[in-house]
Design goal:
The strands form three sheets. A two-stranded antiparallel ribbon has the order 1-2. The protein has a two-stranded antiparallel ribbon with strand order 3-6. The protein has two domains: 45 residues, no CATH class; 66 residues, no CATH class. The protein is 12% helix and 25% strand. It has two helices and six strands; from the N terminus they run ββαββββα.
C-alpha cells in the first residue's frame, strides 16, 4: 500500500471553497500513521468550523439548465421502472398431492420467472438537462413488464 505521503483534504460550501494539503515537494513519509484522517482532516475541520461559524445553513442552488434525476446504477442513464427490478427463474414451492393414484414419478417442477426488487439499483444525481437519455439496458423488456403486475 505504500507509506503515508501527501494528504489533501478539500471541501466547499455555497460560499467558501477550502483545501488543506500536508506533504513535501518530493515523495517522502510525513510521519508514522500520517493518514488523511490524522493529519489533513483535523486541520481542515478546525478551519471550516471557524470560517463558517456565522454562516446560515443553506445549500447550493441548482443552476438553470441543471436538473435532479434518478439514474440507473448499471447504465448511468435515466432510470426506468425496470431498472429497479430483475427477473429470476425460481422453482415454485409447492406440495405434491397425489390425485390420480398413479405410482409414476411426478414431473420435475418447472422454474417460473419471478420479479425481484433490486436495492440501491438507482441513485439521484444532478445533470445538464437533456444530456442523459433513458436506460437502454432495462427499457426494452416491454413483454416482461406486461407479464408481471405489481
Amino acid at each position: 500500500m505504500g507509506l503515508p505521503r501527501a494528504r489533501p483534504q478539500r471541501s466547499r460550501t455555497p460560499h467558501l471553497v477550502a483545501g488543506v494539503w500536508f506533504g513535501f515537494d518530493a515523495p517522502s513519509k510525513i510521519m508514522n500513521e500520517g493518514f488523511a484522517a490524522t493529519v489533513a482532516v483535523p486541520a481542515w475541520a478546525t478551519f471550516m468550523r471557524q470560517a463558517t461559524a456565522k454562516d446560515k445553513p443553506d445549500w447550493f442552488k441548482v443552476p438553470a439548465g441543471v436538473q435532479k434525476v434518478t439514474l440507473c446504477r448499471l447504465s448511468g442513464q435515466l432510470a426506468t421502472d425496470e431498472c429497479r427490478w430483475r427477473t429470476e427463474m425460481r422453482v415454485p414451492q409447492t406440495i405434491a398431492v397425489a390425485t390420480t393414484g398413479s405410482l409414476e414419478p411426478a414431473p420435475p417442477p418447472v422454474p417460473v420467472p419471478v420479479r425481484v426488487p433490486v436495492p440501491d439499483a438507482v441513485y439521484e444525481e444532478y445533470v445538464v438537462s437533456g444530456s442523459v437519455g433513458p436506460c437502454t439496458l432495462h427499457g426494452p423488456h416491454a413483454a416482461v413488464k406486461a407479464e408481471f403486475a405489481r
